[in-house]
Request: fold
Amino acid sequence: MRVLSTRSNALNAVLSAALLFLSALVPATISQEAEAATPTTSGIELGAASSFVVLAGTGITHLGTFDGLNYRSVARGSNGADFGSSPNAGFTGSETVSTIGTKYVGVDASGAEAQTAMTNAKTSLESAYDEAFGRTSDTVLPTKEIGGQTLTSGVYNRGDMQISGTLTLDAAMEPDAVFIFKSASTLVTMQNSKIILINGAQACNVFWQVGSSATLGGDSDFSGSILAHTSITAENGADINGQLLAKYGAVTLINNTFVNDSCVVTSVSSSPEDVPVIRGQAKTTVSWSAPSATGGSSITGYTARAYEEETGGTAVASCSTTNLTCEITGLSNGTTYYVGVTAANGMGESVESSPRVSVVPAAAPGAPTISSVTVGNQSLSAAFSAGSADSNSPITGYQYSLDDGSNWLDSSATSSPLLITGLTNGTSYDLKIRAQSDIGVGDPSDTFSKTPIAKPEDVDSSTISYVASGSSAQVRWTAPNANGAELISTVATAFSSEFGGTSIGTCSAITTATTCEILGLNNGTTYYVSLMARNSVGNSDPSDPRVLLQPGSASTTTMTMSTSSAQAGTSVSLSATVTDGATGTVNFTTDSVSISGCDAVAVSSNQAVCTTTALAAKTHAIQANYSGDVNYGSSATISQSLVILSVFTITYNANGGSGGIASATFTTGGTELVLPTLTKTSHSLDGWYGSSSLATKIGNAGDDYAPSSSRTLYAKWVEASAYATGDNTKIGSITTQDDVGNSTYFANAGTQIQVTYPPDALPDETVLDIYLLSDSDRANSLVPGDKSFVLNLAVDWLAADGTVPNTVERMPITVMVTNPAIKKGSRVYSLLGETVTDLGVALVDGSATVLITEVSEIVVVLTNPDAPTGVSATTTTNSATITFTAPVGNGGASVTTYVATASTGESCSSSGTSCTITGLSSSTGYTFTVRAINSIGTSIASLASSSVSTAESASSSSSSSSSSSGGSGGGGGGGGGGGGGAPVADPEEKELDDLDPEKELDDLDPDKELEEETGREFKPIAPSKPVKETGVIATEGGNGAQLVVERSETDEKMVIKGTGWELNIGAAKKDGTLKPLASDYAISAMDGEKVVLSGLGMAPNTWVDLYVFSDPVFVGTVETDAQGGFDADFDIPSGLSIGAHTLVLGTKNQAGEEVTVTMGLLVLASVVSSEKVNAGSFLGYVAVYALGHKGSTISWKIAGEWFKTKVTSRYQVFQRKTLDVGVDVKVDIYITAAGRDPVRKLSRQVRTR
Reply:
């Protein structure tokens, strides 16, 4: 270690000043890229200080925190990760720092070993600082900013230094390259700045000698060792690949990461090893093993090269990869190539693997030609001739596909023919074959479609039956599998014996018929019948075994039943009467299946009788089947219907109730059961349920019930009192007396409760119990909206007769709750079961008073504020000042912020009751809403202000005056003033923000050819119901039966109520006053007036859309807030014809179900416009609409992209530009009529939906 003499602070100061002076003399023409310094610069020896990541003189301060799991600063490194400070050994925040090294601070700095380590480290730091200070500069940097440059090794000098952006240090593949930066005063790196080391540069060889102090910006990446004269500060998140060494001052850290690694010696790697190749068609696949030595630097990639020479030469093709295999393409089949592989690391490319490996690419086999395909039993045989084959890669086998090439299987064939077995007869196969070699598979043959077939299967003897008659028998059977070919016939043969014997008679059935009659038989003689089927391939084998057949005289059979319906398990008598004199048996069947015990009933005196209880509950088709005898053939009756009824037993589990019945029976088809009514003290019966878990409700008490099985039903009770009070704190009781009122205080845990009831409000000797409840989770889950729980309590009572009555009408009980946590504006709710009732707000800090008429759980919460009121606005040319009144209720938490929002989306915020929105368009109408925010949440929007218009800009005013005085119009000019005959401005152009309709197109050349976009004719379909004159129809999830539709108390709005939500719809005049509803539930308005909408309880942060039909007009959309509330108004669209229309609103409820409202809209007066353009969005598309303008050209720009096309019909929509949902894009629309310049018709922001 080289030790230099320590310079005094005074000398350092003089030298620093001298460097500053010299730097000022450097010519201003020095290049931004500093001249490269000599690569032979030696490093700075840090000695005992090299193991320290932080070394200070007056202490270390760490401002991060330890969260019990993660340390906020971490240090590691192969060269050490010590922390130390001397002579001041203080380390504030040491416990928040994790290091693999040693902390020589605090009590850890007091030992002799620690003191020796610190003395040596500080001595080494002094020497290193002096050595760096004394180094001769190679380059004087022209400016203090050295970010944005790439510098090579050397010594760089500057009065002060700053790094913004990225500084790149390039070692030019010299692993020992050293970089020394000398700043006479300060070193500052900016936030997010970076130092990047490339081409072998190492942080251990980068040194920063700083004459005073260094500051590393937040989230910056720094490399090198800082040797600072005074102090060093690493701001929040700065990462240091090196060391922070301060001679005399402090080091300040905030959540930093340190890496202090030793220098490593690097070189190129050794060659890749084990290089096999696999040849292909005009290509080869090369593989290898990684080099045994990486040269101290990670392998960055490999290159495989193909040569035509075994050594030397130039590569004709190559491939590169970071994996251990790649494919060289572009080779010539039949040519011998020699392949070698090199590896690359940070120091360059290795020597090529040796020796090179030879490979000869070859062509894949050509397509074979199928000459014929022979079908067989579950097989196909293909005759073919082989295709072309490369002499370097002969054909080794064949594959086949049965699905036209989608899937391939290997065949054992090496030449024609190719046999495929195991197929399904009757199934068509699309056959292809292809050859394969060591190169791979070749092209496939053409497709042959064939179907394997075989002779029919044998007729199943168990399906053969017969019907005997005089001298003949009709044979019946089930057709066999034809095995892929159509059946031609089936032949039945009667033989004289069961085996062998003589053929006595035959009959045949053609195609798929399954019956034929054998004639010429002798009654009473036994025969044996066998069947044989035939198709185009051949005959099946005869059915085996033969089936006995006995002809006879025709017989008749009739049947009677003891009943046509019976309960399951009861006896039913079946009686069959056969031809007089006949013997044998009768088989009684149900649905062609023998009835157990009745399958072979002997005939006696022409009758067979069977009694059974074995019939299952259902409708049976009963038939009597006579067997026949030596004289009579068999016969059967027509089936008769017998209904067996199910009997179910229902058991009732009262779950503690009384007054019902234990069980009941039900017979299918009989009178339905009536679910019993029970009673239970202090409870009400919710209904009967199908399981003990009370998950599925069967019905209410008194409902009819037709069970489908025997089961137990369970009563579900709802406790009439507010809450099961056993697990909570009872703080007092009161017993009422006739004619006596009472007011009693109770207190517990900082809460006081005063309960006051008037005389005779409750029956005599009713016991009132007051509880403080512990179940805040339940209360929080039921109370709606944003909230912060304060407390909940229960006021419960039970009358002497065991009932829980309400108080006498107009005699409520007063409950006053006192607790310091209650604040003015806190909301109070009553919970009864799952029912939540809003009882009002606390009027003062510290207490809340409510009136109750039934047992209640009372919950006090802090919640979001009410909406502000009285919103109004005054405007200038481009701004509006909005004033309003604070909300009546602040939810119990002070309102901290108000946010005012314009109808076009601009906003401002304030802690007071006014704020100013800037950036508005001149000569434009706006309305404004305001929301209040406290620590709990945000209110719903206020009612919108009356519409106000910003003033005209100076240029617009001048233009308007010019037009008026001239008495002539032109697009977009103002009306009024001037002489007679001044034209009225197009109403569509009136709506154009502050745009001049005749303005030249921004960046569009009218003659430029734009991408053509084909539109589709847009024919909107009005709702099928209601018709415009019908009343309001509302649906929720496709169903409207449960919704409430009513007029408001003022008769100015329609109120629609659903599951937890409410909508209000009305119309407002231009001055903002609401208009009365029409008699048919419709709203009426005229051009310039508004539709007024508000709602609560819808899905949060979703869209509410409003349309008018039959004219296709999209009126507008508004987004609900986090509580599902909204408050908005929309202008009646210009151009609606006078008369009846249909207003359609669509949105979603909290469950995500679609909510629709359809009602009449009566337009009383309108400014008719025959031409219109608009832009909107649906399903992620931005759509441009055109009404009229037929024959014109429409050009539109969406998100900066232009499109153009012709308008070919009156209504047309052009869908263009798919974007993500929720994106705001600007849409500009121009119309170019024949022979005219383009006119800008619309410019608006569209949010994709």
